[in-house]
Specification:
Length: 244
């Protein structure tokens, strides 16, 4: 299998959106990494978006449970469009992603607070099995909720990352489907945010979630796509941050 850096370079140069009427995204990201400090970091990079402009987003949950989403496009065109009802702040900020090796990357935020987040990825027996399964799954089955539910349960057991939800409802009530076609384990990660060291990677005492999207208790890097119901103001929340 090609290394993640090589696959990401291909995506950045040329990636096509899947067909359909859903709001669609193709790219890669870090599903979530919990730290000893009680912080969580996650990242999404979508070189292709049916909403228009490609974008990058960093998610941060502090030890008190407050979520802040940083994006390099307006919040209504990024992740807060779906998760806004569950987050406290949506901030537009320049975000950097630098690959320093075939399996090593650094994610950065400039400004206040600044972020220097470093990750090293690896393949494990479990990720190899999951990738082999994903590689033979017909395209049509990636859009079936019962198949994604079964995959999520299998991945939860095999990866030891707690509950994993590949389909469900986002905090703003849109239904979603996540299609991770290739995954790697986060072998190690360090992060400094606002001059504070977040400590070692460590599962939280209680796994957390945003709507039906569960944050893994172990770091996972994924390449793939995501699908959300088209925004309907009559049925879906329009908030990009929680009220009150």
């Amino acid at each position: 299998m090609s290394e993640p850096r090589e696959l990401v370079d291909r995506l950045e140069q040329s990636v096509e959106l899947p067909s359909g009427i859903a709001e669609r995204f193709a790219g890669y990201g870090v599903m979530g990494v919990p730290f000893a400090s009680g912080d969580i970091l996650a990242m999404r990079r979508w070189p292709a978006s049916s909403l228009g402009e490609p974008y990058t987003s960093v998610w941060h949950r502090d030890p008190r449970g407050k979520w802040t989403f940083y994006s390099d496009v307006p919040p209504n065109l990024a992740c807060p469009r779906y998760f806004g009802s569950a987050i406290s702040e949506a901030v537009v900020r320049e975000i950097g992603i630098t690959w320093t090796g075939p399996r090593d990357l650094t994610i950065s935020l400039e400004g206040d607070p600044d972020l220097d987040w470093r990750l090293s990825l690896s393949q494990t027996p479990a990720t190899r099995v999951m990738n082999a399964m994903a590689g033979v799954l017909p395209d049509a089955l990636w859009r079936r909720e019962e198949v994604l539910n079964a995959m999520g349960k299998a991945a939860s057991v095999m990866l030891g990352a707690g509950r994993l939800g590949l389909t469900g409802r986002a905090p703003n009530h849109q239904r979603f489907m996540v299609n991770p076609t290739r995954i790697w384990s986060v072998r190690s990660s360090t992060a400094r945010m606002a001059d504070q060291d977040l400590g070692s990677v460590r599962p939280l005492p209680a796994q957390t979630r945003l709507g039906d999207f569960w944050i893994p208790q172990r770091g996972i890097f994924a390449i793939g796509g995501a699908f959300f119901e088209p925004l309907d103001p009559a049925r879906h929340a329009l908030a990009t941050v929680a009220s009150g």
